[in-house]
Amino acid sequence: MGTLIALEGLDGAGKRTLVGAVVARLAERGLTVGTLDFPRYGRSVHADLASEALKGAHGDLADSVHAMAVMFALDRSGAVGELSALLAGHDLVILDRYVASNAAYGAARLHQAADGEFVGWVANLEFERLGLPRPDLQLYLDVPVALAAQRARGRESADASRSLDAYERDRGLQERTGEVYRELAVKDWISPWWVLTPDTDPVTLAENLALLSDDTARRDEKEHGTP
């Protein structure tokens, strides 16, 4: 069984770039790495409905924090089989966003902290009721809001199909979301967290993840008696 790693961060934090560099380094070391991005836009009706709502469609759907969280949770629930297959077939599986993104953005919209009601509700919904696998490690790419916003705008300028949604345009929401992410990391919410900075060396990160994967494999061998 592979090691499940979730990479979190604000819109425009640079998660995709970091994942690409890390995956390349891990492959050089001979490790197999699966990746999956959430939300699964273009593949999941729930993700697409949520995206459309954030751009003004579907009436007042986007106004409800809990309704939007359910849409994103159902997107992930629909990927449980794919996640299981990735974990069975790879040494590591790296996710671009996972359950913590639902907790952080929703809590920030409600002006709650990481110890508020909403974060607990998300954990119960996704891990307990929907049965999503818990990550072995969560990474938070902590990038200044101004830098993340600049990158998001640049992405929009370069690709007309990637217009900013309501979350990305809300500077205050992005700042509050970053604060909730930091609180989740301090609490080691659900699993251990590592906080990364914009100058994180992907080679060093890849080496540390490889060590984690080795530790997970040894733990599984001990627990299940695998030779």
UniProtKB/TrEMBL annotation:
Q: Which Enzyme Commission numbers does its entry carry?
A: 2.7.4.9
**One Pfam annotation, family name?**
Thymidylate_kin
- Give the catalytic activity: dTMP + ATP = dTDP + ADP
Q: Name one GO molecular function term.
A: dTMP kinase activity
List the GO biological process terms: dTDP biosynthetic process; dTTP biosynthetic process; dUDP biosynthetic process
Cite a GO CC annotation.
Answer: cytosol
Q: Where does the record locate the signal sequence feature? A: none
Repeat: present as a keyword of the record? no
Keyword vocabulary terms for this entry:
ATP-binding, Kinase, Nucleotide biosynthesis, Nucleotide-binding, Transferase
Q: Where is the Thymidylate kinase-like domain?
A: 7-185
Q: Which domain of life is it from?
A: Bacteria
Q: Which of the seven top EC classes does this enzyme belong to?
A: transferase
Q: What does this protein do?
A: Phosphorylation of dTMP to form dTDP in both de novo and salvage pathways of dTTP synthesis.
Which protein family is it in? Belongs to the thymidylate kinase family.
The name under which this protein is listed is: Thymidylate kinase
